[in-house]
Amino acid sequence: MTLSTKETNLLKDMKGQEQLCIEKYEKYASEACSTELKSLFHALADAERTHLTTVTDMMNGKVGSTGGSGSSPLSGVSCGKVSYESEDCKKKDAFLCSDMLTTEKHVSSLYNTGVFEFSDVQARNMLNHIQSEEQQHGQKIYEFMNANGMYQ
């Protein structure tokens, strides 16, 4: 696949956002109060690493398949109600979740733009696939927030 300047720049933006997501998820996993949220953030960081690899491959002209075997890093991750020892811990976790939900919305929007800007059909399908996964990440965060009375 030969990339246009616009496509190359979009992929650079996507790569940067994936790197930022990984850094934030790992940092926030270490700061989260609940073990459930720590697990969720670690799983989401793993999923973002997969996206980073895919985007890097695309920058090198290679587009893989959107179909896959194997389990998702998010399978088996619980997003249920947590018992917090203090209101401060709950507020801290709510802030971390809110920030990551906002980040996921931004990243999903960036992939949406890519879907419309790429000329290669296989690349468009891959970007659409990643965007769908980014939306699933946001859904997992929302589920955690909603179960714990953090989503207003």
Structure explained in plain terms:
- This protein has 152 residues and is mainly α.
- It has helices spanning 5-31, 35-59, 87-117, 121-147.
- Helix 1 (5-31) packs antiparallel against helix 3 and helix 3 (87-117) runs antiparallel to helix 4.
- The N and C termini lie far apart (44 Å).
- The mean pLDDT is 93.
Order of helices and strands: HHHH
Shape: elongated
Helix share, percent: over 70%
State the separation between the terminal residues, measured CA to CA. 44 Å
User: What's the main sheet like?
Assistant: none
Strand content: under 5%
Any chance you could write out the topology, listing elements then pairs?
Blueprint: H1 5-31, H2 35-59, H3 87-117, H4 121-147
Characteristic key phrases:
4 helices; 72% helix; elongated; mainly alpha; single chain; 152 residues
What does this entry show, briefly?
By secondary structure, the chain is mainly α. It has helices spanning 5-31, 35-59, 87-117, 121-147.
